[in-house]
Amino acid sequence: MKITFAVLAATLQFVTARPEKPNIVLLLTDDISARELPLYGSTTWTDPFREDTSDPAQQAHMPVLDRLAREGCWVETTWAATVCSPSRAMMMTGRYAHLHKWWNNKDKGMVTRANGKQEVWPLYESSPLQLGHLAQKAGYGTFWAGKTQMAGDLDRFGFDEGCFTPGSLSDRDNPYTDFKHVPTMVAGEKILLCADTGKPVDTYWQHGWYFYPHVKLLNPGGKKGYHWWPDSEESRAQFGPQTYGPDVELDFAFDYLERQVQEEKPFFIYHCSHLGHDAYDWLHPESKSSWPGTPVVTWNGQGYERREVKITGNKGNYDTHGTVTEPGMHRHLNYLDYQVWQYLQKFEELGIADNTLFIFTSDNGSGGYGKNSPDRQKGTHVPLIIHGKGLSKKGKQEILVNLSDFLPTLAELTGYEIPIDYEHNGKSLVPFLYGEEEQHRDWIYAYYFGKQLIRGHKVMKDARDKWWDVSAVPGDLISFPEITDWKQISPAHRTERARLEAILPSFDLYESAHDAPGTKAERLFTASGKRIKAPVKLSPEKSPDGLQAAGAPIDLFAQGDFSEWTIQGKPVAGGWTIADGVVHLKPQGGNLLSKRSFKNFELSFEWKVSEGGNSGVKYRCQKSLGPEYQILDDEKHPAGKNPRQRTGGLYEIQARLHDNCYRPAGEWNTSRIVAKNKSLAHWLNGKQVVAIKIGSPEWNEAYGASKFAKLPDFGLKAGNLLLQDHGNEVWFRNVKVRKLKPHKKNAQ
C-alpha cells in the first residue's frame, strides 16, 4: 500500500462550539522528554550519543507541531510514569499501578491461573475498561498502530484492527526479514547474534521496527486474524530494507480511517510510534548512536517533501545513497513532525479537519536522560499538544496533567459514561479544554517500582524521597532547587507538601498488593528497583509504612445479628434490624457502636440512604465522637450546601475531592475507609474522595475551626466504629473491617 500526498496548507480557525463525537487521533511517541521539543524552550536537549547538548545543529525542527501548539494548546507539565510499560498501562487504563499492577518494565504483577501457573496479569483483566473499550462502546471504530508493549491477546484491548511493529522477542517465525537478533550459547556464555550478518552484537535483544521492519496485522480490513505482513504478492514485491516501519503504520492507519469516513462512522486511532526509542542500527552496525537515521524529509515553508528511500547491499554492508539521514534523536523528532503533517493533509483531504481532535504526547523521558529515572521529573515529564476545533484554550497552559486523565477525557468526548463504581485515577480535561476552567489538577502522580513521585504547583517529591521547589521553571526544565530546610520555605509550600503526603498512602500498595488478588509471586525487585539476587516470597500483606494486614477481613454482621455491636453499652433493640444480610435503621434506633476498637484498619461497606436522609460512619470514636465518613442525600438535605458535609467527605474537616461519584438516595453506594497512623483516606464508588494527614496545615486549619477543636487527640487514638442514627432511614451491607498492625520489627 502506498499513499501519496499533495503539499497542502492546513489552516485552522477558532470556533467556540465543541464538536459532537469528534474523531480522535492519539499519537503516543516513545521515550521523548518535553525538553526535546523546541516548543518547550529548554536550554539543553539530547545529542545522538545520549548526552546533554545545547548545539542548535542537534535540535529538532518541528514547524508543524509548533503551529498546532499555537492554534491549539500545549501543556507545560504533563506526567507519565518513568518507563514504557507502566506509562502505557496508565494511559490505556486511566489507573495508577496500585490498580493495574504494572510497576516497571520488568516488574509486573502476576496472576495465578487455574492450573497453578503464574503469568503477567494482563491489563484487560486487571482493568477491563480501557481507551479502546470505551470508544467501541460509544460507537467508534478503533485502530491501534505501532508498538504495543502489552501482555496477553492483542484482540482483547478494544481495537477493531491494528498494524503492529512490535519488536517482540517472541516473534521468531517472521519469514520476511532478518533484521533481528538471535540469542545463542558460545563456550558457555550467552551472546546475541545479528541474523543479518551472523556476527555477535553488543546491544539489547531486539527485532527491527524501523527499516526492514517486523510487521503484524490484526483483523486487517475487518477480516479476523493476526498474521505477518507483507501478505500479498504486491506487498511482498515492494518489501525490503527500504521499507520503513513508521510509514507502514501510517499507511494502514490511513486505510482504516478512510473506510470509517466512507461509512460515516467516527474513529479513534491510537498510534504508538517507535520514533524516539533507541535501536540497533541494522544499516550501520558500527554506529555508536542510539537513534538510527530516518528517511530524509525537507520542510519548504509550506509543507514537507520526502526523498524516496534507496538502499542497496546486504549483510551489514549497505549504501543508503543519501536518502537516509545521519543518526540522532532530533532526526526522529523531525520525522514525527512530518508524520503529523501527513495526518493533517489526510484530514483536509477527507473533509474531517473540523471534526477531528489530534493529541501528541509521549510515554516517558528520553533515553540517557530521563527514561526509568527516579530523579526529579526526568523520567515523567513528557510533551503534550492538543489541537482541534472549539478549544477554549490556546497556546501555553500552565496546568498539571497525568496520562491517566485520557480515559475520562475520551469518555466525555465520545459520549460514553464510565460506570460510577469503576475506579480510575484520571480527571477529564474536557471542562478545561472546552470550558472556562483555568486550572485542571492540584497534583500529579507517578511510580518507579514501589517508590512514589508526586508534585503540585509548588513542591515535588521524587522517587528518591527528595523534595524540590517547582514554583518556578528553570531554563533546562529540571534544575529545581532542592528543599532541605523546610523552615526556610513559605507556608504555602509546607501546606502543599502536607497535602501531597496525605495522598501518598492511598496508592502505596507495592508491598501489600503487588500482584493480582490471591496471588503471591516471587519478588524480583525491591521497592527502590534493586534486583533481588535470590528471589524471595514476600507476604502480600506487608506495606512499607510499617503496617501489615492482621488476617482476613472481619464481617461485622457475619452471624446475622448484632453480637458485634451495642447501643451505648446495651444490647441492640428497637429501630435496627437485619434481613438477608442488609442492616436497616428506622429512626430513633440509636447509634450502633462496635464492641471492638480499631486504630489502623481498612473498613469497606455498602450503604444507601432515604430521600433527604443523613447518616454517617464514625471511626476511632471516643464517647461516640470521632472522624466521620459523611452519608447524605446531597441533593435534598440542607447540609448538602456545605462542601464539608457532603457524602464521602470527612465531616467538617475535608470536602469530597471528586464530584459526580455518588449515587442518589435509594441506590447502593460502595465505600472504603483506610486509617494508617495519622493518614486518613476515604473512597466512594471507586474514587478516592478524602486524603488528609492529622496535624497537617490543612487538618489544623479545618480542625481548629470545627466543633471538635476542644477535643484533644481527636482522631489519633484507637476507638470504636459507629453507624449513625441521624433521624433518617439508612441501610448497610457487607460491612467488613481488617486490622492493620505494625510489623514485629517496628512494634514499640
Describe the structure.
The chain is α+β, with helices and mostly antiparallel strands. The chain is 15% helix and 28% strand. The strands form eleven sheets. Strands 1, 4, 9, 10, 14, 15, 16, 21, 22, 23 and 24 form an eleven-stranded mixed sheet that branches. A hairpin with a 5-residue loop joins strand 7 (110-112) and strand 8. Helix 7 packs parallel to helix 8. 50% of the residues are buried. Residues 1-15, 536-546 and 743-748 have low confidence and may be disordered. Residues 22-416 form the Sulfatase N-terminal domain. Belongs to the sulfatase family. Pfam families: 3keto-disac_hyd, Sulfatase. One of its GO terms (molecular function) is arylsulfatase activity.
Summarize the entry for a quick read:
The chain is an alpha+beta fold and 748 residues long. The protein has 12 helices and 44 strands.
